[in-house]
Give the backbone structure.
Amino acid sequence: MSDDGKYAAQVAMVKEECKDADEGEIAKEFKRYEEEFLIPPADALRSVMRKFQTEAGIEVTKSSSPSTQQAAEKKVERFSDLNSDDRNVTIEVAVISYTPRIQKMKSGEERKIAFGWIEDNPWESSDKRERWDYKDWGDKSKNLAPGSIVRLEGVSVNEWNDKRSINVNSTSRVTTLKEGGPVVHQPSDEPLTIEKASAMEGFVSLVARVVSTKPDVIVKRDGSGQLNVVRGRLADSTGSISMLSWADFDHEPGSLVRIEGATIRRFRETPEVNISDSTTVEVYHDNSFASLDQLSSSVKSNISDLRNGMRDVEITLQIESWNQRSFTSKDGTERVVRSGDVMDPTGRCRLTAWCDFDPKPGDFIHLKEARVQSWQGSPDLVIDDISQATNLDNPAWDQIDPEDHWVDVDLTDLVSGGTRRGIRTSGTIVFVTNDSGIIERCPESLPDGNRKCRKRLRDGSCIDHGAQRGEEDLRIRLVLDNGVSNVSLLLSKEPAEAFLKMSQADVAEKISKDGQELFLTSIREESLGRNVSVNGLALIDDQGAMVLADSATLDQTPASDAANLVMQKWGVAL
Amino acid sequence: MGGQRRVRQSAIRMLAREYSDSSLTEVGAGEFDPSFVVTKLGARINRALVGGVIDRMERRDGDNGPSYSGSLRDPTGSHVFNIAPFQPELHADAEELLARFESGDRFLMILVGRSRWFEQEDGGVFMSLRAEQFTVCDKETYSMWLVGAADSTLRRLDAYEKSIGIDPDQNSMEEAGIPSDLIKGLIASREHYPEFDSENYQVGVLQALSAASGRTNLIQEAPEPPSDSGHDGNDAESDTITPIEPAGDLHGTIIATIKARDSGEGVEYDSIILSCVESGFSREDAEDALESLRDIDGAIIEPRFGFFRILPTS
C-alpha cells in the first residue's frame, strides 16, 4: 500500500464517482496501468474510471457506431432511377468534362475538388443519354478523364434548388471501363544507365562500353534455316547487361557506343538488350566515360548478383565441397558430371562442371564466361569447358567457415534481389497462417524410385496421385515483415520443432487435445509482433518472396537496450 | 519490389496519434487495388502493426452475425479496431477478449489490421483498423513494439523534415535522400494537409521510448491536485493548456451533440469527441473545446465524471 500516496489524487477522483469502490483496489489498478501497461496515472484516469463505473453498474453509454450508418448499395442504369436521398449508388457513366478547383473547407483546410458533367447510358449514342452535374470530392482526376466511360461505386445523390447532381466521395470507387483518348506514351531518346534499363522492358537508348562480343548462330525452330547473331556484354559505371544483336555488330570490345531504339527483353529473369535493323548503333566520344579496366568490377559478379539465365559471368569463388557422378546419357555414352557447393562473401550457391575440373574444398577459383541456370529455384553456376576455370594461388579473402557462413541481408534488399542461399535476415512476425501445424504428405514413390511425391494432401487426396493415406509432417507458415517489405517464412519440421520448443508428436497431441484454433492462438501468443532472426534460403520470383528457414530465433534483446539503440540512431534523448 | 499485382502490403508500425490525426485516404483505381490512409508524416497505410492496453471491447449482433469493436491505448492515444461478421476465424478469440474485458481484466495486445475509415458528408474522416490477427502479449513484447513504432515514426519524421522546402515530386525527393517507400505518401500529404507542427509526434515518440525504457514518469507533467470545487482537475492537461480561440462551429457541434443525445443522464465524453471527429475536427481540438466550454464559457457542466450536460438556464 506504500504506493497509495503516489496515486492519491487520481484515486480520490475515482472514489468520488464510484463511492463503493475500494481505494486499495483503485490504487492497485493505477499501479497496474503504470507498471504493466506503461500509462502514467494522469493518462490512465479515464480508463480506470470507466472500469470501476462499469463494475459498479453505472451505465456507460456505448459510443455510436458509424458503421451502422452505411446504406445498402443501390445499383441503377439511368439517372432517372435515382431518388434525391440515395447513398451508395453504383452506376456506369460517360465523363464529359472535368474541371478541378480548390475549395476552402470549414475547418480551414484547402481541398482539391472538381466538378463537371457526366452522362448515363454511356454505351449508347448521346441522344439516348441524360446529362447531370457531378462534384468530385475524392480527387479522382486520374479516373475521371473526359471521354472515358467509368463505373462509379459508392457515390451519392445531391439535390439543391430542385436540381440533382452526383457527389463522388473519397470513399467512392471509380473504375475505368473504357479509356478516354489514346494513352500517349512517348519513348524517350534520352539514354538511360544500365541499372535503370535493366529494371524496365521495351524501348531504350543507352551509352555503354562494349565488353565482349562473340558471333553465334540461332537455329530456327521450324527447321527453315539459321540466323547469324552477335552476343556480347555492355557495361557502364552502374552495371553490365548482356546483348543480343540480330543485325551486324562490328564494334570491338573496348569501344564506346551510343545505342538508340534497342529493346530490353527478358531471358528467364535476366534482362538483355536486343539490337535489330531499326536500332542505331554509333561510336560515341566521351573521354570521361569509364574505361574497360575501370568497368571490370561492374562486370565481375558476386553470388548475390546471380540471376537465372545470365551468361558471360566472371566470378571468384571458394570451394566448399566437390563430387562427381557418372550417368548414361540418352545416346548410350557414359558421361561424368562434377558439382559442388561454392561460396563467396555474399553467399553460397552450386557449381556444375561439364568438364574435367577437380578443385579441392577450400580452394579459390576464378571462372570466366560461366552461365547461370536455375536449380531447385536457386541460381547456380555452370561451366562447360576447363578453359573457363582457373585455380588461384592466393586466397581471395580470409577462408570462410562453411559451418557458419550466413550473410546478413536486410529484408528489403532481400526482397528486391534474387534467389539466394545462405542468408540471415530479420523482421517481425505479423501473420500466422491457419494451415500451420500438422499436414499430410503424399507417400507415393516417384518414377525415379528414389524419392517420394511429398506433395501436401488436401482432404486426404494428392493432386497427382489421388486419395492416399498421408504421412504426417510438421510445417509452420508465417509472414516476416520489417514495415517496408515482407516475405513468407516457411519452417519445415526441424526448424519448426526448434522454434516451438515442441516435437512433432507433442504438436500432434496438443492439436488433437485442444483443437487447431487453440494451437494457432498459442503460436500467435508466442510470436505475433515479436522480432525474429532467420537463417536459410530466400526464393524470390514473380509469385513473391519466400524464406525457407534452416532456423528461426526469437530476438531476446531487452526493450530498454533496443530503445537506447533507436535513440542513438536518430539522435534523440529523453 | 517489382510493383506486381497482389504484393502483400507491409505492416507499418504506427502510434495511435499519427493514425487518428489522418484525414487523407486513397482508394485504388482498379477493382482489387489496395486502399490506403495517408498520415501527415506521409505513411501510406493499408496494413498496420499496433499495440496497447485494451480500453474498450464491445459486441454487436447483426443480421450477418456478431461483430466486435474495441480500442487499444498506447502512450499517444487509442487505436479503434473492428472484427467483422465475415471473420468467423477471429470470433473465438474475440469472445475470449470480451469475456476477460467484461470481467474487469485489462491486458496488453498486439494487433495487425487493415486500414478502414468512415467518412461524413462534410469531409470529416474517422480512422479505424479491421483486425487481421491479434494476440494478448506481455509487457516485454509490447515494449519492443513501442520501440519499433518509435523507430518507424522517427524515420518518417526525418523524411518529413528533409521534404520541407523540397518540390513535391519524385526526383526532388529522391535527391533529398528520402527513402523510396515514403515519397509517394509525403507528396500526397503535402498536397492535402495544411502546415502542421511535427513536434507533437516527436513528443509521442519520446513518450513511447521512455515507456519502453521503463521510465514512465520522466516526461509526464506532474498531475494537478484535485480541486474541491468539482471536476476541473480530472485531466492533468486541462489546467496547463491556454484557452483556445472559440471556434464557433466546433462549440456549436458539441452543444448540438449534447442537446440531441442527452436523455437526462448526460452525454458521454467519448461520444461527444467522436461526433466532433466525425464532423471533421481533430480529436485534439475537440478535447480542448469541450474543456473550454466547461471551464471557461461554462456553457456545459460535467455533473458526473465523463458525462456532460447543457447548463440549465433557469
User: Anything to note?
Assistant: The domain at 236-310 of chain B is CATH 1.10.10 (Arc Repressor Mutant, subunit A). The CA atoms of residues 9 and 47 of chain B lie 6 Å apart.
